[in-house]
Recover the amino acids of this structure.
């Protein structure tokens, strides 16, 4: 197969269940070029690239390489013409070694002893691009940045001329991001073609030569990044002028509500993920935990809410010790929880909306009379929540999984804060939601703070953290690198703290 | 005393062989992510077909080959249900067991009680069988024993040191990622379920034309279920399966050994299952992480889902 010097997508359309995800998309990329694909979540960027990678078939339109029309029906065919893709959620087999993962995708893997036979070739390749990975390590032992390099290596080793990267920096620290950019620039000089999918303006303008903006499945603009106005790009992407301007009024901190003292929690693999964390949260306060995911946030939250046993240390709400108490007891003591992965842990997707509206509260007198649930009260309550928290739904009698992510999250938040619990623990509450829902949820959190709630907010979104929080703790490998006041001048170094290079 | 020890050791290996064959098949199948609870039924089908063909042709090797093929064929039912139709694998596996037991009972109705004139004869390995003690225990065994050992090692080799093995393991761990690497996940699974069925069929043949040279309904006597337990006991590793299979074989022999001491045979029949429970509890209590089953074991996988 000849080297790709130019790739064109002509008039690509694709819809899912009648809803268009891509509508008449045209784009061109040439050798030695980095093209940015900018758009919000759900704009159709990933769908478009999955078509190029052979995972989806377009309903209409064609793909041309060097002017010739090509058919790409499977990932295999895509790899054969020289296209490689690094998915946002890595397509790596976690319990296998890095080299085994490369064997899996490599088309010319020898049948016998493939790991040993290709090891040297892979090593030579990784030296060339200055990748620093221990190939014999199992993937789960590697950091996110290293895993990503395994993915890139996998694609290059397979002879990819064109590399598609889907939100490559979403799991990286700022420092790892810079290292990635160095690698990508080197590949560009070697004549590779790179398509970068992102919704982050800064990285698009820093790295890309050209940018194409998608909105709701359509192309809404092209631009050369050297003479582009960031604000104009943002407007193109969102379709209206930006964005959040949430006012956080100053409220003095009052008495201590939740205190966590020297908490140690083990992760799923039996090794400590939270290594002695101490903090207090007060009434009228939002306490944020920033950090790249996988640094112990999940274990910390689960230990506080009773979903996971802690090894040592204690958790107290006002004066009650709730360390390692069962989750329902902790809930009744006044800690409610908006969990991460809302569909998996926040709702029972197959149950009706009104049933989900009382999860965890079904024992209360309001909703049950001895043996039976009091459906009248439950439905009233559900209708109340739907109205009060602007859940857009045709009725309360639909399966909750049919709601959009934003509406599910509004329902969960409503359920959790409706009873005005003293403490709310919220994990990634706006992750993956559209602008409108995000804005609404953030305002609700601030409202709760004003009413006297104490909120623990775990998020990867620095913008969210800095907008909402009174104090921000940065977590790295299970420890706090420091706790900052919202107006602390050190806040500009938060990226360094997230990467573990700066401790206050 | 010496005689007894040698005889017990020898019979332990005999009793462990069909367990080993079945377990290798199940390991292969589960490593690709498909739970196959049909082993008991497939074994039974293998046993009856091997018996019928051997009786008709006088050739036990032909009997074994047909049993393997029958095992592969009937396993396609489970493969189709669990891979193509993405149905619940527990249900379809149990269905396969019932179908297999039923079909073999039907086919074998007129063969019950007929003795087999020819059977798979034991094979003495030249030279090695002359070694004192060791020779009698290890090298004067049924061909099934040697084949089982070779197949166990071969399966281990394929799984760990070939690119095919990496594809199989990857399919069981993360079918989505495997598919994005251009591997036909369904094909891999079909292959593993069918070849695994062949192993079970062979285990059945072992019972009817070598272990005992007769057919009676229900002669698999729960060995298919022990295989499922052994797969977990071996932690999905074919070489560890060798150890496990002969350990359980020893428990079978123990039943006969303890019976003359006046212990009820019904109680002793409980031993293999009791041992399974104990082993699983022990592994589970020591470190549940050790029970690292293939991550997608038993999960239906739908292609191209958003």
């Amino acid at each position: 197969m000849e080297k790709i010097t130019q790739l064109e997508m002509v008039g690509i359309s694709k819809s899912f269940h009648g809803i268009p995800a891509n509508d008449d998309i045209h784009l061109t990329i040439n050798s030695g070029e980095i093209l940015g694909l900018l758009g919000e979540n759900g704009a159709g960027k990933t769908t478009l690239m999955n078509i190029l990678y052979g995972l989806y078939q377009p309903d209409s339109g064609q793909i041309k390489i060097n002017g010739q029309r090509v058919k790409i029906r499977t990932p295999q065919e895509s790899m054969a013409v020289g296209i490689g893709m690094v998915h946002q959620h890595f397509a790596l087999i976690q319990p296998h070694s890095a080299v085994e993962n490369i064997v899996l995708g490599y088309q010319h893997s020898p049948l016998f002893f493939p790991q040993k036979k290709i090891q040297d070739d892979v090593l030579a390749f990784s030296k060339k691009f200055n990748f620093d990975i221990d190939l014999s390590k199992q993937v789960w032992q590697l950091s996110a940045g290293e895993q990503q390099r395994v993915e890139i290596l996998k694609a290059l080793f397979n002879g990819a001329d064109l590399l598609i990267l889907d939100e490559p920096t979403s799991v990286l620290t700022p420092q790892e991001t810079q290292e990635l950019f160095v690698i990508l620039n080197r590949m560009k000089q070697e004549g590779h073609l790179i398509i970068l999918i992102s919704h982050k303006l800064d990285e698009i303008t820093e790295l890309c030569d050209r940018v194409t903006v998608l909105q709701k499945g359509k192309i809404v603009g092209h631009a050369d990044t050297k003479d582009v106005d960031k604000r104009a790009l943002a407007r193109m992407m969102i379709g209206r002028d930006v964005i959040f301007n949430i006012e956080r009024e100053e409220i003095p901190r009052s008495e201590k509500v939740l205190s966590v003292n020297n908490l140690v929690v083990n992760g799923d693999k039996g090794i400590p993920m939270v290594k002695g964390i101490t903090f207090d949260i007060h009434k009228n306060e939002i306490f944020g935990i920033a950090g790249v995911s996988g640094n112990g946030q999940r274990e910390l939250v689960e230990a506080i809410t009773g979903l996971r046993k802690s090894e040592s240390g204690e958790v107290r709400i006002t004066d009650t010790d709730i360390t390692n108490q069962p989750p329902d007891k902790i809930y009744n003591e006044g800690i409610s929880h908006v969990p991460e992965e809302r569909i998996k842990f926040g709702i029972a997707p197959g149950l009706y909306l009104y049933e989900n509206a009382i999860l965890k509260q079904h024992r209360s007198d309001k909703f049950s009379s001895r043996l039976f649930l009091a459906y009248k009260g439950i439905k009233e309550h559900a209708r109340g929540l739907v109205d009060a928290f602007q859940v857009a739904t045709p009725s309360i009698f639909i399966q909750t999984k049919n709601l959009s992510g934003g509406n599910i999250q509004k329902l969960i938040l409503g359920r959790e804060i409706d009873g005005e619990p003293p403490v709310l623990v919220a994990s990634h509450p706006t992750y993956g939601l559209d602008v409108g829902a995000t804005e609404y949820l953030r305002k609700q959190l601030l409202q709760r703070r004003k009413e006297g709630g104490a909120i623990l907010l775990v998020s990867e979104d620095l913008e969210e953290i800095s907008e909402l929080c009174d104090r921000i703790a940065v977590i790295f490998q299970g420890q706090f690198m420091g706790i900052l006041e919202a107006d602390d001048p050190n806040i500009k170094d938060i990226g360094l703290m997230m990467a573990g290079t700066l401790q206050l | 005393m010496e005689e007894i020890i040698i005889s017990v050791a020898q019979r332990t290996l005999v009793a462990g062989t069909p367990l080993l064959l079945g377990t290798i098949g199940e390991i292969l199948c589960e490593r690709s992510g498909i739970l196959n609870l049909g082993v008991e039924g497939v074994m039974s089908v293998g046993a009856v077909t091997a018996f019928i063909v051997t009786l008709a042709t006088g050739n036990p090797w032909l009997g074994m080959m047909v049993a393997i093929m029958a095992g592969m064929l009937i396993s396609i039912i489970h493969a189709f249900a669990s891979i193509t139709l993405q149905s619940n694998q527990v249900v379809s596996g149990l269905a396969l067991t019932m179908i297999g037991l039923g079909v073999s009972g039907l086919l074998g109705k007129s063969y019950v009680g007929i003795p087999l004139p020819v059977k798979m004869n034991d094979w003495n390995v030249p030279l090695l069988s002359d070694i004192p003690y060791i020779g009698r225990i290890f090298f004067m065994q049924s061909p099934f024993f040697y084949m089982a050992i070779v197949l166990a090692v071969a399966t281990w080799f394929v799984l760990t040191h070939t690119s095919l093995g990496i594809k199989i393991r990857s399919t069981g761990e993360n079918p989505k990622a495997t598919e994005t690497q251009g591997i036909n996940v369904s094909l891999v699974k079909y292959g593993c379920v069918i070849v695994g069925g062949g192993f079970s069929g062979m285990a059945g043949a072992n019972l009817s034309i070598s272990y005992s040279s007769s057919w009676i309904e229900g002669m698999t006597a729960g060995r298919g279920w022990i295989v499922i337990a052994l797969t977990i006991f071996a932690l999905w590793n074919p070489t560890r399966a060798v150890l496990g299979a002969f350990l359980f074989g020893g428990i079978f022999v123990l039943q006969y050994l303890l019976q003359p001491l006046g212990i009820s045979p019904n109680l002793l029949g409980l031993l293999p299952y009791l041992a399974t429970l104990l082993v699983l509890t022990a592994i589970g209590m020591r470190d549940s992480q050790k029970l690292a089953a293939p991550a997608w074991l038993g999960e239906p996988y739908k292609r191209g889902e958003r």
DSSP finds 17 helices and 22 strands in chain A. Chain A has a mean pLDDT of 87. Residues 174-189 of chain A form the longest helix (16 residues). The CA atoms of residues 38 and 213 of chain A lie 5 Å apart.
